[in-house]
Amino acid sequence: MPFRSYIKTHHPKTFSTLKNLRSFIYSIMAQIADENNQSSATAAAADPPPPFNPLTPAVPISYPLKTLEELESRAYFKSFHFPFNQSTVKLPSAAALPLRPRTLVCHDMAGGYTDDKFVQGGANPDAYAIWHWYLIDVFVYFSHNLVTLPPPCWTNTAHRHGVKVLGTFIMEWDEGKALADKLLSTKASAQLYAERLSELAVALGFDGWLINMEVNLDPGQIPNLKEFVNHLSQTMHSSLPGSLVIWYDSVTIDGDLNWQNLLNDKNKPFFDICDGLFANYSWGEDYPKLSADVAGERKYDVYMGIDVFGRGTFGGGQWTTNAALDVIKKNNVSAAIFAPGWVYETKQPPDFQTAQNRWWGLVEKSWGTVQNYPKVLPFYSNFNQGHGYHIYIDGEQVSDTPWNNISLQSFQPFIEYPEGSTTQPIQVSINFKEASYNGGSNITFSGTLADGADFRPRLFKGDLLLGKSPIHITYSVKSTGNSLLGIAVDFTSAKEEKKSVFLAASGNTLLTMNQFSQHFTHVIMPRRVTKLDQEPGWILQESSVDMAGHTLNEIRAVCYRPKQESHAPLQYHAVLGDIKITFGQISNFPLSSSWILDSQFVVWTSGPQGSKRLSAKITWQLKEGNADFVKYNIYVNKLKGTSSEGAQEYLGEATVKSFYVSELEVLAGISSLKFVIQVCDVGGVLQKLEDSPSYLLKVEGA
Q: 0.90 cut: is pTM over it?
């Protein structure tokens, strides 16, 4: 056992003292660094930027609360940034967690609030993200601030995939002890702060809290601590059915900061009044079973911690994280994976995409998938990971600016990557450089394939019971030569009979039937094929499938070549842009006249040669009703009189009904700005720009 872990486990009070000493040293180092930075800044610029003021209109960001005064006063709700930080994607169901071993993932990436803090997106195409949501039940956003509020991008994409999201409430070091004294001063104060935390979670749309009290307490404070945990659990459950409060294994029922590394009589009193225990990482091989024995019927509510950095964790973490997962799964309890950002922070070779897929592949091999989709219709995915180098909309490029915004993650494919030296004829990858159909990426299939051969990589694992209406599956594809790309959909009947339907690419029907009829229950040719004019190469293929009473279990791509005389392997290349599954219904968008649009916090500043810069908040709301859409694309037309000056400019995407325009350049001669809000529904359909609501803002002084 490493020395640090030995001290933490066997001499917890000494470890706590050392932590406080480290905190003091770090504070001195930080003060010195700040002084050096201030000196450098003074030399570089006479006017350093002002300190952050949450009341001042600015580019919307996510940020934590650092004091109990902020929490008690509800100051956050007065912040300019609050409306932008509300998540808009609801969980498909408020049901309790499934009765099986679960996977909790605790984010803890580089201290938190990095590229992900920019609510409307940032400019880092290589920003950190998680896309293996089908392996996760609960996601915790973690930092070392008092109240860690998850940026809405994480909540939006996690909810889309059926994953619950928790914020973190933490007290540590000497500062944390002083805060705990205030929190636990009375029963009423404990209840007050619990209610404030519940209020924040409900208002921002996430699902509960991880509570981490890493401080020594007086035994007399424990009753109020239990009241805090119990009241938080009760208020969360009553305000948000299906919500969670999870206790981190830290302070004991005796008030000692003494990590137990399992569920026992020292921490079970807290476990009994909340939804689970996150056990510390330094456990032995028999600890999961011992914890399960103590938990009884609630064994799945015990989450055994695994530190991916390997700091005193069973199995060593890192590339052997699966060793701990195997032991946890064997003993039928749950896992808490801490800091999977290790892959990103330590720059694991050869690159983040490859290393991330390989690492999560170990998790899947040990644990299996825990989420399935599609579960409901309509279902849409453009395979967007929430970062990239360009933006395309319906095959047309609207931006070539690098970007990141996890809120824009689409349903993520269940791509299987070969281990080690294992080879396969076609390499499957998420491609960020080649032209996309929608968003900033696509799935590329590239390699060699003989005539008459096929390759069937997994795309999605579903759980969708079909009714009497047929479903319509549409996908966009580009390919070279005789590289053909179809879709295979696997079903089971009510009698557990397996059936497989092949949606072939457009081509010779007779040859296709001869090639695949023996391998699939049904072979269906596309009912409609559309070739796009604005982007040569993209083809939309639509097929109809009638499998009433069957359950859709899996969707695979089918890479193939038509049977010809040659059997030698040839180069294969095809690109899948997006996929859509609906009942064939037509999207109905509100008329543009149904919306009320406005501008707020409008600020004009003068620039060179008569130009100006605009900062303003643009808002939109339906006059009647409150229909929610997946997202809104924001454009601006710069007008001279009534004529447009240049091309329509894409500004970004919003998930809430507001967008902050920051420092938009307006050249001399422009008289007004026409902002266009393009609505996108859950099925990936966009309202036509000419039918979209718009707002006209006159240029100051024009």
A: yes
